[in-house]
Design goal:
The chain has 212 residues and is mostly helical. It has helices spanning 2-14, 18-25, 40-47, 49-73, 77-92, 105-115, 117-134, 137-154, 159-175, 177-185.
Amino acid sequence: MLAVILVLIGYLVGAIPTGYLVCRALGVDLRTVGSGNIGTANAYRAAGKKAFVATLVGDLLKGLAPVVFARLLTDNDWVVAAVALAALIGHCWPVYLGFKGGKAVATAAGTSIGLAPPVGLLMFVVWWAVVLVSRYTSLAALVLAVIGPLLFIVTGQPVAYLVYAACACILIVERHKGNVKALLNGTERKFGASKSGTSRTSKTSKSPAGKG
């Protein structure tokens, strides 16, 4: 019974639509901007850096908190791994928004930190490094999906955590299928770019002489 309750808590906490709530508080419906996704990149596109940071922290915490809570109440690795996966499923298919959610990347980093802190923190650092170098959050997510399970293996994590990592990898890749096509076609938007592809931080071109 405890396992069922913990998994349900994992789902309900993971399903909290952080990006939607943050941007809604700023007067923006995140589902109607850019990609319509409720994740960090679209939050930045919709409402700027503060919304991005708040969404990132919130998505990390809603993955981390239920896992830490579960580990305090049980030493069953399979139950803890199930709670982590439930948080990801909640983020991707939140009951609060008609089961239309995000792509699980920041929440996966949070759950991974909860399961294996060194692994999760390293994954977070790698994600940021790829974003800063490539400017593609989707590419960073795909890199994370590939190296995540490998890091869990080489650091000797429990089998249950390895199963979780494999499931998270499949889930993230599946949620990024459209991004993969866009990357291959050269049409993927870079981090901070508007729907038209221009950066939020780029200055508006001056009007031609004689124009208002």
